[in-house]
Design a protein that fits this description.
2 helices; seven-stranded antiparallel β-sheet; single chain; OB fold (Dihydrolipoamide Acetyltransferase, E2P); Ribosomal protein L2, domain 3; 2 domains; globular
Length: about 280
Amino acid sequence: MGIRRFKPTTNGLRHTAISDFAEITKGKPEKALLRPLKSSGGRNSYGRITSRHRGGGHKRMYRMIDFKRTRIDAPATVLAIEYDPNRTARIALIQYQNDKSKSYILAPLDLKVGDTVISTNSADVEITPGNCLPLSKIPLGTGIHNIELKSGKGGQIVRSAGATAQLIAREGTFAHVRLPSSEVRKIPVECRATIGQLSNVENETISIGKAGRSRWLGRRGQSRGVVMNPVDHPHGGGEGKAPQGNPHPVTPWGKPTKGYKTRRPHKYSDHLIVRRRTK
């Protein structure tokens, strides 16, 4: 696992820094675990653009990831570490030893081919990357990922490349978890989490290098508001090259941007946040 850089033989390669994919051990995905994935281009069911600057991109198949880990006390062997175009972290192909069925899980940092992982409710199991336990059975201070917010729903948070949260306390029916954003949140102790830090830690140092690679990922170019007409954006208009002119920068629909808080006041989960990510 590392970053691959290039000699600046072309303008596109000059600033390019991409993954070397050294940890990938299998080229083609498991066919039985693939599902079709239709690209929406940022459009809703009415055909209207609700998420701008999206479209095109390479065709993808969705990998069926087991976020729930409901096969309790069934050991599984890691067959391969694979690339997933739908997420930044790597995924691991595992095979359960009792019935030889296969599934995908998110691959932790130190998981290797041939390792054994297990999902259990017992505290006797070894605390190694890839094992899945309830928060009530995980030792304090352990790094975790793929954390449930509601028991049985499956992991919802801490799922991107290099992410890890820390279990810092238990108080009654809740565990206190420090998230990657530095927010401390209460999560029910019966919720499950997976041990370890997620793979592909160098993802944050990747440099796209050229506009074309963004298009491969389905990201279209974005036009600045100051170069638009007033009918299209509040920053638009003016004679010649003009600054945006507003007391505060706004979105195309007039709402403040660049640091404006959009979280709903009095949200239902406010009482679960012990310490916010803002200082």
